[in-house]
Write a structure and sequence with these properties.
By secondary structure, this protein is of the alpha+beta class. The protein is built from eight helices and ten strands. The protein folds into three domains: 6-74, Arc Repressor Mutant, subunit A (Orthogonal Bundle); 83-132 and 205-239, 2-Layer Sandwich (Alpha-Beta Plaits), CATH 3.30.70; 134-203, YebC, transcriptional regulation domain (Alpha-Beta Plaits, 2-Layer Sandwich), CATH 3.30.70.980.
């Protein structure tokens, strides 16, 4: 099984900071709303919604907030109409960046994303210019919970997982789109606590970055992720120095 990239560690710590700030609720509500609008308001018949609801519960979102987001999406309550958009670009050093957004104003969002790239020495790219270097994968993270990597491997490999990596006190499991739900269920049935489970863009090849270039890329990513319309940011940057300070 593979080792762990520093980018994965940084993402996990940034997610923890977002959770403390309460910012994670905004992103989760948008995901619930879009999932319910596209696939219906019943989690049992809508796998994307079921996943969004499970992640919201794991983040301790109140049940009323979840129900309200679903009702707004299905028209039972008045709500905002969101659109999903994916943007591509290059950070300093030719590092690839993909951005998933959910917005009620496409013009505002693209202008703000373009400004972020410009401010930090990057540039936006045409659709397909960057995404060819990424694969859509399922990614599941969970605390060690007194389990060894062999213990987790025994559970997830039988369920169809592609890979497992370890870092500090948690595991990250990668799956295909087809086996994502079966691996997630196998972990739940084993009584394990899942920290996060989502479909992500995973880079096929990483580019090592360090020093000033590393700092510039992190500032770009920070600015993008601070945008309320941005749901997720993905990159093929492999930060090889000591961990960057995350503000």
């Amino acid at each position: 099984m593979s080792g762990h990239s520093k980018w994965s560690t940084i993402k996990r710590k940034k997610a923890a900071i977002d959770a403390k700030r309460g910012k994670i609720f905004t992103k989760l509500i948008k995901e619930i709303t879009v999932a319910a609008r596209n696939g219906g308001g019943d989690p049992d018949g809508n796998p994307r919604l079921r996943l969004a609801v499970d992640n919201a519960k794991a983040a301790n979102m109140p049940a009323d907030n979840i129900d309200r987001a679903i009702k707004k999406a299905t028209g039972e309550l008045e709500g905002v109409s969101y659109s999903e958009m994916t943007y591509e670009g290059y950070a300093p050093g030719g590092v690839a960046v993909m951005i998933e957004s959910v917005t009620d104003n496409k013009n505002r969002t693209v202008a703000e994303i373009r400004h972020a790239f410009s401010k930090h020495g990057g540039s936006m790219a045409e659709s397909g210019a960057v995404s060819y270097g990424f694969n859509r994968k399922g990614v599941i993270t969970l605390p060690a919970q007194d389990k060894t990597e062999d213990d987790i491997m025994e559970i997830v490999l039988d369920a169809g997982a592609d890979d497992i990596s370890t870092e500090e006190e948690y595991f990250e499991i990668t799956t295909s789109l087809e086996t994502f739900e079966s691996v997630r269920k196998a972990l739940i049935n084993a009584g394990l606590e899942i920290e996060n489970a989502s479909l992500q863009w995973v880079a096929q090849n990483m580019i090592e970055v360090k020093g000033e270039e590393s700092e510039r890329i992190m500032k770009l990513i920070d600015m993008l992720e601070d945008n309320d319309d941005v749901q997720n940011v993905y990159t093929n940057a492999d930060f090889v120095e000591e961990e960057q300070q995350i503000k």
